[in-house]
Amino acid sequence: MAQRGIAFLMYHELEIPGRPLCQFDAGYSRYVVRNADFRSQMRWLQQTGRRGMSVGEALAIMATNGEERPGVVVTFDDGCESDLISAAPTLREASYNATFYVTIAFLGQRGYMNLAQLSELSALGFEIGCHSMTHAYLTDLDERGLAREIVGAKAQLEDILGKPVEHFSCPGGRWDARVTQVARTAGFRSVVNSRVQVNPPTADTFALGRIAVLRQTALPAFQEICRGEGLWKIQLRDRARDAAKQILGNSLYDRSRALLLR
Ligand SMILES: [Zn+2]
To answer: What DSSP letter does each residue of 132-187 carry, written as one string?
Structure first.
């Protein structure tokens, strides 16, 4: 059964053939979607009359308790160069908006946007959100750390762009009540994490869920996500993976302990 609400899609880097990725480990590439797959996904959205929105546009719809035309929110984390050179042209072809969450410390690093590219993306009309100062896991930080990563990052990003930055995305999806409080006080209007759920009009705008589109996400699975269907399968898979890790960890621990005690 479909959950009622708007699906917020979470993308990271898009892979362009012949171009090295920002990072190389397997954990990272799991989140890298091939550019051709992204184009197919956007084409399907268009063919089915769905619109691609920014977070700000979705919040406006949610505040009026929703319009009927179906749509999804398109978000990108980290500020990769592929935001500007791959995602933006595809989104513009479809007349879609999107929100690009940027980590300040990544700007100018290999594979990530530099300041001029970020300004260009913003000038194209796309929404720029904040993805912290250094990509630290916020739940590990003290008050000073939270102020730097949330309040400081907002101010710096607004300096760069010359316009308000109102939406925040939590690095690694880690968040808690303190994060929410600091973000609210800093003047953000929303915080997204990566809990697998669609967001109904009544959703807490400081705890909005997002669904990751992964390298392995085939088109039928993508279509389900956009319809808010079968999300329990993703929730179950995520939980099973965490559990498997724990079980493997324990059994390896048990085996090595048995060897040592023999
Ligand atoms: Zn990130």
So the answer is: -SS---GGG--HHHHIIIIIIHHHHHHHHHTS---EEE-GGG---HHHHHHHHHHT
Q: How far apart are CA 78 and CA 91, in angstroms?
A: 18
* 236 CA → ligand 1 middle, Å: 23
Q: What is the pTM of this model?
A: 0.90
**DSSP character string of 68-102:** SS-EEEEEEEE-BTHIIIIIHHHHHHTT---EEEE
CA of residue 194 to ligand 1 center, whole Å: 10
pLDDT tens-digit map of 169-218: 999 888 899 999 999 999 999 999 988 999 999 999 999 999 999 999 99
To the nearest 10 degrees (0 to 180), the angle between helices 35-47 and 219-227 is: 50
